[in-house]
Amino acid sequence: MKMDFADIFLSKGINYFTEDTPLNAILRYIDISPDKKLEKLGQFVSDELIEVSAIVDHYFKPVLQTWSITDERLDSVWLSPEHSRMLAKMQELGVVRSAVEPGGIINHFLSGYIISDPGFYCTLTLTAQTAYALHKYGDSDTRNKFLPRYLDPDDPWYGATYYTEIQGGSDLGSNRATASFANGKWAIESKDKYFASNAGLADGSIVTARPGGSEAGTRGLAVFFVPAKNSRGELNYNVRRLKDKLGTISVPTGEVEMNNSEAYLLGEKKYGIYYAMEILMISRIDDAISAAGIARKALWESYLYAGKRMAFGRKLIDHPLMLRDFLEMEADLEASLILSLLAADLFSKSSSQRPPYDEVYHKARVFSHIAKNNASWVSDAITRYCMEIFGGKGFLREFPIEKFHRDSIVTSIWEGTSNIQALDLMELLSRKKIHLAIKEDLLDMVENLGDRKWKIRVIEAILLKFESVERWLSGKNPEMHAKDVLNGLANAISLAHLFKLSDLDRTQRFRQVASIYYYMHFIRDEEGDDEFAKSKAIDWMKIK
Ligand SMILES: Cc1cc2nc3c(=O)[nH]c(=O)nc-3n(C[C@H](O)[C@H](O)[C@H](O)COP(=O)(O)OP(=O)(O)OC[C@H]3O[C@@H](n4cnc5c(N)ncnc54)[C@H](O)[C@@H]3O)c2cc1C
C-alpha cells in the first residue's frame, strides 16, 4: 500500500505563513510588508518541503563524487532529484534573489522562518550571502561576470562562505590562508578550510585569506570570491571530504583545499574583516530566524498532538501543567521572533551602508548578536521539550519530531558560538555605548502603555535590567559577565516589545503572552497562575 510519508506531520497542509497569527501580528507591529511570494512559500513548505526534507535526512544525504566515470576529477556533490527540485523551487520563489533586490533582503530573512529547515535554508543562505557580497563589493568586472549566474532563473549558481579553518573558527584572526597577486590576478593557498558548507555544491564561494605583507590577526584579512572552476574551466579548488553530522544533513559540509586558486578581491583589502562580518551578519540573522521557525514547527506539531493524545482520561493539552509548558514556550518563541525580526529590519534598513558604517548598522549588529543567541537557545529548549511532549515517540527516528531538535542544535554553534556573540556584543557596547540608546528607546516605548499596573512593572523591570547591564559592563571583569549582558538585554528588549505589541494589537492573547514572559523572566511566583490558567494564547494553532 502506498504511504504518504508526510502523513506523519500533523501540521501538513497548514500554510506556515498565512496561518501563523503571531508572525503576522509581529510583522504588522514592526511595519514589515512581506512579499506575496511568501504565501506560496508557506504552502509549498507545508505541502512538499517538510516531507522531502525528512526523507533526505533519513535516506538521501548528499554524496561527494570525487571522480567522473570518464576519470575527470569532479569534487561535486550528488543530490537526490527531489532535493534539487526543492532548492530550485525555493530559488524560483525568490529566497536568494530577494537578498540583492532593493529593499528585498527582509523577504530573504522572512523566508528562513517559513522554510525553517536549517539544512535546506543554509544552502540558500550561503548562496544569498555570496550574491550579496558580489553585488555590493565586487568591482564591475567581477560583478558583471558572476552575479548574473546567481540570479539566473533557469540554472542558478550556489554559493558558500569559507572562513573557518581547523585551528580556529571563533578566532578568525588565526586564519592561515594566504593570497598573492601576480600578473593582475589573485591566487589563494589554503590547506585548512575545515568547515565548508555547500562544499561540492557551490559554484563559487566567499573566502577569507591574508594577502602577502598584511598584518597578523583579523585586520590583515581580505575577502575574495573564488569560483569553483577557474578561467580555463578546470577545478579551481578541491573538496577533501564531507563531514558526518548529527543534523542539517541536507546541506553538505566539507573540507576545502586551495592550491593557487584563482580569486577575485572584493572591495578594499583594508576593510576585509568589516566585509567578512557584514556578510556573516546575514547568516547570523538567518540563523536566528530559522531557529525560531523550526521551534514553531516543533511546537505546532506538538500542540496538534497534545490535542489528540489522551492521558488519565483527558487530552494532554487539558492538563494544567502541560498547558503551562506550552504557554511558556509560546512566550519565549514570540520573544525570539520579535528579536530576530527587529535584527532583520535593522539590517535591511542599513544594508546600503559601507565601512565605517552608521549607527543603524551598529544597532543591527547589537540585535543580531542578541537574536542569534536567544533564538538558538530558545529553539534548542523548545525542540528538545517537544520531543518529550510526544513521550517515547519523540525519541524515535521514524517520527519527525527528533529531527527538529537535531537540526536546531547547530544554530547556537555555527556563525559564531554563544560566547562569541556575547564577547562581540560586549566589545561593541563598550565602544559605542549603544545600550544607552536602546534603554531610552525602550522606556519611551512603554511610557504610554494603557494598563497602569503593567506600565509601572515593565518600567521597573527595564530599569533594573539596565542597571545590571551597566554594572556588568563597567565592572572589574566584564568578560565574565558577557552572557549576562547578552541575556539581560534580550529579556528587557523582549518584554518592552511584547507589551507594546499587546497594547497596539488590543487582543487579550498578546497581553497574556507579554505577562507570561514577565512571570517567566522577571518575577516567578504564583501571582501569574491566573494568567496561565485562563490563557487562550496558543489556541490559534488549532487546525481550522
Ligand atoms: C555543521 C557546521 C557547518 C559549518 N559551516 C561553516 C561554513 O560553511 N563556513 C565557515 O566558515 N564555518 C562553518 N562552520 C564553522 C563554525 O562557524 C565554527 O565551528 C564555530 O564558529 C566555532 O568555531 P570552532 O569550531 O573552531 O570552535 P572554537 O573556536 O575552537 O571554540 C570552541 C569553544 O570555545 C569557546 N570559545 C572560543 N573563544 C572563546 C573566548 N574568547 N572566550 C570564551 N569562550 C571561547 C567557543 O564558544 C566554543 O564553545 C560550520 C560548523 C558546523 C558545525
Query: Which ranges are low-confidence, i.e. pLDDT below 50, for 5 or more consecutive residues?
Result: none
Which strand-content bin applies to the residues? 5-15%
Q: Could you say which small molecules are bound to this protein? A: flavin-adenine dinucleotide
What's the average pLDDT? 96
| SS-based class | alpha+beta
Share of helical residues: 40-55%
Rg calculated over all Cα atoms:
23 Å
Shape label: globular
Please give a structural write-up.
The protein has 544 residues and is of the alpha+beta class. A hairpin with a 2-residue loop joins strand 4 and strand 5. Helix 7 packs antiparallel against helix 10. The chain is globular, with a radius of gyration of 23 Å. The mean pLDDT is 96. Flavin-adenine dinucleotide binds next to strand 3, strand 5 and helix 11.
Short description:
With 544 residues, the chain is an alpha+beta fold. It is built from 16 helices and eleven strands.
Search tags:
single chain; 544 residues; Butyryl-Coa Dehydrogenase, subunit A, domain 1; Butyryl-CoA Dehydrogenase, subunit A, domain 2; five-stranded mixed beta barrel; 16 helices; 11 strands; 53% helix
Fold blueprint:
Blueprint: H1 21-30, H2 37-59, E1 63-67, E2 73-78, H3 81-92, H4 105-115, H5 118-137, H6 140-151, E3 161-162, E4 178-182, E5 185-197, E6 204-211, E7 222-227, E8 238-242, E9 253-265, H7 272-306, E10 310-311, E11 314-315, H8 320-350, H9 359-389, H10 401-409, H11 418-432, H12 434-446, H13 452-474, H14 482-505, H15 508-521, H16 529-534
Parallel strand pairs: 3-6, 4-6
Antiparallel strand pairs: 1-2, 4-5, 5-9, 6-7, 7-9, 8-9, 10-11
Helix pairs in contact: 1-8, 2-3, 2-4, 4-7, 4-8, 5-6, 5-7, 7-8, 7-9, 7-10, 8-9, 8-14, 8-15, 9-10, 9-11, 9-14, 11-14, 12-13, 12-14, 13-14, 14-15
The structure holds flavin-adenine dinucleotide.
